[in-house]
Amino acid sequence: MHHRTRQIFTAITLVSLGLGALVAPASAAERVRLNYRGFSRTVPVALLSALAETGEATGTLGGLLNQAGQNPSELRSLLTRPLPASPVVLDRALNSRPGEWVLDQLSGSIHTGRGAADRQALRSALVLSASDDNQVTLLEVLQNYPTEEVVLEGDRIQDAYNSLASFLRPLAIFL
After folding, report:
1. What's the average model confidence in pLDDT over 41-70?
2. What are phi and psi of 111, to 5 degrees?
3. Closest CA to 126 of 78, 82, 77, 173
4. Which of 9, 16, 57, 74 could form a disulfide with 62 if both were Cys (CB 3.0 to 4.6 A apart)?
5. What's the whole-model pTM score?
């Protein structure tokens, strides 16, 4: 009997690990190409994470924000402001006509840079962002974006955040 329990436990563990591998992104964004007011720089996602944690923009991120006349605290606020979202409800909503419209609107601000599969990549990043804590932040979306590089149109970040917030607000009742 003890041997049978161990086999069941081992099987459950292996299945859980396998499902975890399916849910985890094959690759996540390592770099963000930030476009601000005619300036463009590629920065490591780690610099955006550091800005979110410390409030300080360093390296190429600091230089770009300085050139563009962008206040680091405003970017920090947009990166870290959470929006409540159930991953299951979010996935269903984003796979509807209104959800696809929202994804198309958002992909004008957050995209692959190649114009291919922007909707699918953004949907994946949003759902993965909500999966661990029932909320979405722009930083999480960038961290979970399923390509090595993601493009963020800095001049449109606030509009993208507002569109996403408007879409998610009525879905919050399902939390």
Report:
1. 91
2. -155, 175
3. 82
4. 57
5. 0.79
Burial 90-126 (b: 16+ CB within 10 A, else e): bbebbeeeebeebbebbbebbbbeeeeebbebbbbbb
Cα→Cα distances 105→38, 87, 121, Å: 21, 20, 14
Alpha carbons 50 and 54: distance in angstroms, whole number = 6
Express each pLDDT in 72-88 by its tens digit: 999 999 999 999 999 99
CA distances from 78 to 1, 17, 160 (A): 55, 34, 10
Q: What is the CA radius of gyration of the chain?
A: 18
Phi, psi of 128 (to 5 degrees): -60, -35
Interior CA angle at 122 toward 118 and 124, to 5°? 120
Query: What digits encode the pLDDT tens for the residues 107-132?
Result: 989 998 887 778 999 999 999 999 99
Beta-carbon contacts of residue 29 (< 8 Å; ≥ 6 apart): 45, 142, 143, 144, 145, 146, 147, 148, 149, 150
Residue written as tokens 């209104």? 98
